[in-house]
User: Which sequence fits this backbone?
C-alpha cells in the first residue's frame, strides 16, 4: 500500500482550501481509505478547527521536523472516523521553519501506511506554496467564480506546471447558481475554458459550510445533509478514479433547492 | 416601467460576460509576460519594419496575444494597402 499525495492550493486566500481539505479527508476516509491531512499553513493553523480537533493537538509539523517528537506522536486521530488523521501546523512559528525537503521526507514516511495524504497549502506563491507542492503526486487547484480568484489560480496553474507537478485539476467553489443564471457570475464552463485545465469538482455556495465550520463538523460527515457535502464526496470518488457525473446545480428559492436536490440525487 | 427596465438591462452586457472578457485579456498578458505597454512597442516597431518594404495600412494594424488552451501566440494582423488605393 502506497499513498497518493495530493496538494490543495489556490494562490488567493479565502477561496476554500482548508474547507476542501477537511471535507476531502472526511469523504475519503468514509470510503474506507486511510487518510492523513497535513496543515501546511505554518503560523496560521486552521485545519484543526475545521475538523473540530483543535483541543487535541500535542505536537505539530515543526516539532516533527525539528525532532522534538516522532511523526506518529504528532498525528491527531479524528475519532469520528476510523482512519482519518491530522498533522497540525505549528501556530507560533512561520513558514521559514519548513523546507520542501522536510515535506517530501515526512510525506514519504507516511506514504507506506496510508492511502491518501492531503496537503493543505497556505495561500500565496512563496515558500509556503513551494514546500506544500514539493511532495505532491497531484495538485488540486481551488478557485471561486470571481475575477481575482481566477487570475490567481491561473498563476498557480503555471507554477505547478513549472514545478513539473501538472497538470493540476480544478475545483470551482462557492458557485451561486442563481447568479450564474442571471449572468451575474462567471459560469463553470467560462472558468474551465479560461484556465484550460481539467475540472474535478463543483461546490455550491451554501450556508451549511459556515455552520459546519462553526461546529468543527465538516459537511461531508453527513453527505445527504447538503449539496456541498455531496459535492465533496463526488470529488473524493473522482480522486479514486471513479467517473462520477457533476451535480446539476439549480436554485429557485427553498422549494427549488429541495427539488433540485432530490433530482440531482437521482442522477 | 418594468418592461422598460428589463429592456435596458437586456441591452447591457451581463457582468459575468464582462468578467470573462477581462480575464481572457489579462490572463493572456500574464501568461506571456507581455504588458499592454510592451505590446504597443512591438506594434510600433513591427509597423516601422514592414513599412520599409511594403505599403501597409498602419492605422488598422492589430497586434494581440491569442490563446488556445494554454498556448499563447503573438498575432499581428497587418492590412496591406491595395494597388488601387495606392494609386489614388
Assistant:
Amino acid at each position: 500500500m502506497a499513498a497518493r499525495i495530493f496538494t490543495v492550493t489556490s494562490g488567493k486566500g479565502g477561496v476554500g482550501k482548508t474547507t476542501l481539505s477537511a471535507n476531502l479527508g472526511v469523504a475519503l476516509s468514509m470510503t474506507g481509505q486511510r487518510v492523513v491531512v497535513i496543515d501546511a499553513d505554518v503560523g496560521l493553523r486552521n485545519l484543526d478547527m475545521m475538523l473540530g480537533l483543535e483541543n487535541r493537538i500535542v505536537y505539530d509539523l515543526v516539532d516533527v521536523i525539528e525532532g522534538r517528537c516522532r511523526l506518529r506522536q504528532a498525528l491527531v486521530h479524528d475519532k469520528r472516523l476510523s482512519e482519518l488523521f491530522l498533522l497540525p501546523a505549528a501556530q507560533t512559528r512561520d513558514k521559514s521553519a519548513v523546507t520542501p525537503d522536510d515535506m517530501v521526507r515526512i510525506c514519504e514516511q507516511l506514504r507506506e501506511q496510508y492511502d491518501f495524504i492531503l496537503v493543505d497549502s497556505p495561500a500565496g506563491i512563496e515558500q509556503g506554496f513551494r514546500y506544500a507542492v514539493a511532495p505532491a503526486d497531484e495538485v488540486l487547484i481551488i478557485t471561486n467564480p470571481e475575477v481575482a480568484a481566477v487570475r490567481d489560480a491561473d498563476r498557480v496553474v503555471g507554477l505547478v506546471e513549472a514545478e513539473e507537478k501538472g497538470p493540476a485539476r480544478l475545483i470551482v467553489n462557492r458557485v451561486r447558481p442563481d447568479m450564474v443564471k442571471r449572468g451575474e457570475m462567471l459560469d463553470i464552463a467560462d472558468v474551465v475554458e479560461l484556465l484550460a485545465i481539467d475540472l474535478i469538482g463543483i461546490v455550491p455556495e451554501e450556508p451549511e459550510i459556515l455552520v459546519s465550520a462553526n461546529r468543527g463538523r465538516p459537511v461531508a460527515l453527513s453527505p445527504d445533509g447538503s449539496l456541498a457535502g455531496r459535492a465533496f464526496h463526488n470529488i473524493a470518488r473522482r480522486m479514486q478514479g471513479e467517473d462520477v457525473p457533476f451535480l446539476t446545480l439549480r436554485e429557485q428559492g427553498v422549494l427549488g433547492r429541495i427539488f433540485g436536490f432530490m433530482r440531482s440525487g437521482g442522477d | 416601467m418594468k418592461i422598460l427596465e428589463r429592456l435596458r438591462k437586456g441591452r447591457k452586457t451581463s457582468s459575468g460576460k464582462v468578467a470573462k472578457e477581462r480575464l481572457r485579456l489579462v490572463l493572456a498578458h500574464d501568461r506571456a509576460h507581455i504588458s499592454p505597454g510592451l505590446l504597443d512597442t512591438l506594434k510600433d516597431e513591427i509597423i516601422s519594419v514592414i513599412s520599409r518594404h511594403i505599403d501597409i495600412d498602419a492605422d488598422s494594424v492589430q497586434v494581440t496575444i491569442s490563446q488556445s488552451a494554454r498556448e499563447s501566440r503573438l498575432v499581428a494582423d497587418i492590412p496591406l494597402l491595395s494597388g488601387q488605393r495606392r494609386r489614388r
Notes: The interface with chain B takes residues 146-147, 150-151, 154-155, 157-158, 161, 179-180, 182-187, 190, 194, 196-197 of chain A (CB under 8 Å). The mean pLDDT of chain A is 93. Chain A has one domain: 4-265. Strands of chain A lie at 4-9, 35-39, 76-77, 84-87, 116-120, 138-143, 169-175, 198-204.
